[in-house]
Amino acid sequence: MDDKQLLRYSRHILLPQVDIKGQEAISAGRVLIIGIGGLGSPVSMYLAASGVGTLVLVDDDKVDVSNLQRQIVHREYTLGLSKVESAAQTLAAINSTVCIKTLARRLDEITLMEQVEKADVVVDCSDNFVTRKLLNRTCLATRTPLVSGAAIRLEGQLAVFDFRDQTCPCYQCLYALTGDEDLTCSQNGVLSPVVGVVGSHQALEALKILGSFGKLNAGRLALFDGYANQWRYLNAQKDPKCEVCGNP
Ligand SMILES: [Zn+2]
Prior knowledge:
This protein has 248 residues and is an alpha/beta fold. The chain has helices spanning 3-8, 10-13, 19-27, 40-49, 83-94, 109-118, 129-142, 171-178, 185-188, 192-211; strands at residues 30-34, 54-58, 99-103, 121-124, 146-152, 155-161, 220-225, 230-235.
């Protein structure tokens, strides 16, 4: 690490939990971010500012005026651009030393597998169950840690699936408990900072995984209630009969 980097990341390096070793690991890390919307905005911005070596951005959508209320990585002047290109411009302006790769399409299973295998951490910022379940299966198969987030109305959810640990429950184990429905922000609405709260927590967990410090929010589902400003936690066990990770 040269003098410029030591200065740039000095507030990280000052933390005994991070130190130079942790920052070097962050700077060498590669993170795959699926979805560059409300959650993907704070995730990508914090990870770029933190100096993560490579960020791979995946989204097949274009920037729409209704996105700007909460998707803070996008700009009025990038309306109509692909979200990954729009975000790449903002992120390059935040930290030009980060390598940003963009994929402006929905990934098929083979391409997704290739990208997940190359990543140190996958951050799920998608807005649908099909993608979440596919990411769960792919990350489980490759033993890649998955940081999952969701936000709707004034509510948020966060869970880390640390597949490096074979006893960790998977997304399917968790959602068999809650029986969640597939809700969309376009139909139900979402209060802007709620995606910021969840996305910031996803970035935090991703940095802890890259830097190998701290306690992960694994084996439990964290539920944020923005109306009352409260967090609560549902503990989850790996379900031995789980159709995805179990041994039936
Ligand atoms: Zn499972």
